[in-house]
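Revision sheet: structure tokens.
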Amino acid sequence: MQNSRRPGDGHRFARTAAARAVCDNFRFEERVTDDRWAAYDTHDFEPPPTRPRRTMAVKHADYVANRLNAPPDGVPATFTADNADALIATLAPRDIIRVECIDWLFDRVGRFTKPNVLNAFRMAKNRGRAPTDPVRLTQNRLLEAFVERWNRRRDNRPGFAAFRDEVKDDLEDRNWFLRLRDRLGLGHFHVPNHAKEYTVVAMAYTVAEVLEATPRAERQRAFAVPTVLDGPLNPFYVPAPTELPYGRTLDLREDAACNRLVAEILHRRIDYSVAHMEKMASIAAPMPEPSLKRLRNAHLRCLREYRSDFGEPMPDHVRD
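Predicted:
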């Protein structure tokens, strides 16, 4: 079935900050080409038979699943010619940081339980033991097998990432997992009332490694600026004006001085290795600022330093 409506069409009727945010992301987006909008608008999907109000959300989820995560030719729509206005043709050599959640890879029982993997990581990365230490070698082999499982099970979705030099201080802090969550706008790792926890890994690699993993003929399409079409409907994502060369993450701590904006990019899939796993920890804490409306309006003020008419603040009637 084809449905040319977009979630942004309903912004006037959105009463919650989360619903309004999803609509505003479509309204504010400037980097999606006409060709990519056309492909999105005419994307075939099976609408929900009993919940017609969910049709647009189901359509978007289907687009993400079939055009980004597991596209027919293996290349996400993000990295095709249809996305020309968002592609980054050249990128200077830099180190990249990406935060991954790995809970979905753990076994309840067996070799790859969470305690086993956490212990293997600590031992494999323990610089106090010699590389030839038998215990360290055993744990490193377990970790290598875990990463092999991870690579087999991963799909081809675009990787949201930041540049290491912009989050260096956060990464070196003892609470790096909370600081990176907040700086990178990872609101899906919000844990109200400490009710659960997410196991996360800071993955570190380079621009050169991404290029090496991309077929030579496609390397000018290995990186892109994030757009509203490059992931699930996400109230913690905010498009960036075209005056900026990259995206900008939504800081989960209100940034009144506008000095914490982090550049955000997308890149083609690479196979991970144990060497890429820099840090591992569990997140079990709420966001520092619970008001999505306040966060987005503060972020918009910062983006308007680059263009004063970009976007639109959430109006008074929208509630958190």
